Amino acid sequence: MAAKSKSASLDRKKLWSDPVMMGMIIILLVFLALFIVYPLFVLLIDSVYTEGTFTLEVFKRVLSMERFRTAFSNTVVLGFMTGILSTVIGLLFAYVDVYVDVKSKVITKLFNVVSLLPVVSPPFVLSLSTIMLFGRSGILTRSLLHIYDSNVYGLKGIVVVQTLTFFPVCYLMLKGLLKNIDPSLEEASRDIGASRMKVFTTVTLPLLLPGLGNAFLVTFIESVADFANPMLIGGDYDTLATTIYLQVTGSYDSTGAAAMSVVLLSMTLVLFFIQKYYLERKTAATLTGKASRARMLIQDKPVRIPLTIICSVITVFVIMMYVMIPFGALFKLWGRDYSLTFKWFDYLFKYSGLKAFRDSFILSIIAAPITALLSMVISYLVVKKKFKSKAFIEFVSMLAMAVPGTVLGIGYIRGYANGLFHSGIMSGLYGTGLILIIVFIIRSLPVGTRSGISALRQIDKSIEESAYDLGAGSGKVFTSVTLPLIKDSFFSGLVTSFVRSITAISAIILLVTPQFLLITCQINEFAEKGYYGVACAYATILIAIVYASVLIMNLFIKFFGTSRKIKEV
Q1: Are 167 and 86 in contact (CB under 8 A)?
Q2: How far is CA 506 from CA 211, 228, 255, in A?
Q3: Largest CA distance in the chain
Q4: Which residue from 186, 317, 483, 553 lies 20 to 30 Å from 389 (Cα-Cα)?
Q5: What stretch of H or E contains 53?
Q6: What is the value of pTM for the model shown?
Q7: How far apart are CA 171 and CA 119, in angstroms?
Q8: Residue of 547, 560, 548, 559 whose CA lies nearest to 119
Q9: Is the pLDDT of residue 566 over 50?
Q10: How far apart are CA 446 and CA 394, in angstroms?
Q11: Angstrom distance (rounded) from CA 32 to CA 5
Q12: How far, in Å, CA of 206 to CA of 66, rounded?
């Protein structure tokens, strides 16, 4: 114990004598405090401090509003339904992928496509597709089935759209967990006569329970924080995210919106703490290491065929939903005239379309490298260094994952338009492109940080220590040794940040000014007005840009990444 304490003390002394590393830590502390902690703190103060006194009157007023109580209960119901359905479908896909001998390679590739589609598309694309396919003017409901009163708005519409959007996240999470289950545990049960269903319910499922809980909570948080889908297809089914937005833009009640934001933030934070600090650890403790040997895939037709068919039908349905977007941009008048035309693309480029793409691209391309670099620096400090504020940096950098976009937007409005920085240098941030870039960075930081931490934990400490022994400083070691070893994670974080930035809407819709036109805001605006052709044209080009970015990243990693270098060695 004494040796451990002495080692930590030496590490701290080294840190204090390293100006580059100390500079990084100070910059990070100031950045995280200003742009994550401060806006959330202002929201809390706004909700309990009125006219120079601390009071709960704002909360009493908000809680007495029937609209708020309805939105709160709606949000909880929506979160539970989406979480359960997404987890079940995600588990089904993961089980088929890992356990079942899927004969067709095409089906396996389609599974991979479905897992990628929600990443490379704007958050409300499926809402747009659902309206165009199953709405009152839907191509399936009106044109094929001659149903003229179809209503896809409300709870059922949001649940379907959110489930199809979020189940791939559960699929990817549970796929990794299933691969780590030792097949000998399940085969021992089979050897003593247990059926496959019995093995699944008594062996596989108990091992997966913490992971299932983790997947459920991640989806629940995503669902209750989602703004775009409920706004587009929610109809009169209000959620907290949309109610907060309308409280600012419709009722001009930013104080009430701040109190509502605190309620929503409290809900997501509690779930985040349970997911991050309990279920993740329990999952890691239950499923440790890799399977001891290869698993014998299920070839029994009564199991293989039905499961494969169910997953294939869902996969084809999801892909069809995405395919409808470019068709929506090419049809002359959705629901009436399905002749092909490019008039919506012409309209897009004639009326501010180029500015929207230019503004979105420039802001996202500026935010992406900053986010990727900050993520790697935070990961490096968290994994490789010991200092007193390390826990604060790790916690706050991951905290943005639990903060709904609308809450963050309200926090920035209250913090930089009405708070401590309503005058002075920092007040110049509000309404500028810089504040949009900062929001993009904050929203993407947790993903890049998690990826960087995972990559850095696989690097032997002795590699960097050799560089230190040769006289290199921390900055030199980080840029010449550590960063080249985790370049795959860096490139991945770079593209992920670009994708998340250019497809973001919930945090920026309250902050964007007429000076800037952003693609997602334009899509949302045209879709709300019923101009689905223009909205689809925007979405089609946006998906093409994002998908091209992902392909370029994969090619870059393939030819210049760390894995290639290792193979060459």
Answers
A1: yes
A2: 28, 7, 19
A3: 79
A4: 483
A5: strand 53-54
A6: 0.84
A7: 13
A8: 547
A9: no
A10: 9
A11: 28
A12: 41
Dig out the tokens for 249 from the structure: 């833009």
Distances (CA, A) of 561 to 369, 462, 565, 569: 17, 22, 7, 13
| Both structure tokens of 274 | 């349970």
- Tokens 């896809």 belong to which residue? 152
Q: Can you tell me the distance from the alpha carbon of 24 to that of 68, in angstroms, rounded to the nearest whole number?
A: 43
One-letter amino acid for residue 467 of the chain:
A
| Rounded Cα gap, residues 462 and 468, in angstroms | 10
Which token pair is 510?
């309250």
State pLDDT tens for residues 99-143: 888 877 787 788 777 877 776 677 788 898 998 888 888 888 888
Q: What's the CA angle centered on 272, arms 123 and 92, to 5 degrees? A: 60
> What is the C-alpha to C-alpha distance for residues 541 and 552, in angstroms, rounded to an integer?
16
Written as six digits, the tokens of 453 are 């931490």
Phi-psi region of 265 (alpha: psi -120 to 50; beta: other; left: phi over 0): alpha
- Planar angle of CA 68, 504, 558, nearest 5 degrees: 145
**Predicted confidence (pLDDT) per residue in 339-387, tens digit:** 888 899 988 888 777 888 899 999 999 999 999 889 888 888 888 777 7
104: tokens are 């067709």
Calpha distance 494→444 (Å, rounded): 10
- Which residue did the predictor score with more confidence, 164 or 335? 164
Those residues with Cβ within 8 angstroms of residue 396's Cβ, 6 or more apart along the chain or in another chain: 32, 33, 36, 37
Return d(Cα 351, Cα 349) in angstroms, integer.
Answer: 6
